[in-house]
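Notebook entry, structure prediction.
Reason for the run: the old model in the group folder had no record of what sequence produced it. Starting over properly, with the input documented here first.
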Amino acid sequence: MLWFMQRGGERIQCEIRAAEDGEGFELVWSEDGRQHVERSTNPDELASRWLELEQRWRHDGWTKMGG
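New structure, fully documented this time:
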């Protein structure tokens, strides 16, 4: 799953994907020029974490692109 957030000319890309090494899943996002990765064996845990991040970003003035 892939999401994009925008604020002015800035953009955050966020993705939940299978881990490259085949050991679980990763939540990956780019913010402030840095890439962040959180791993879990439970994709529902990462989906909940995504919702936490989305709420924080919306509070900081970001909007979800395409929705």
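Summary: The longest strand covers residues 10-18.
The old model has been moved to the deprecated folder.
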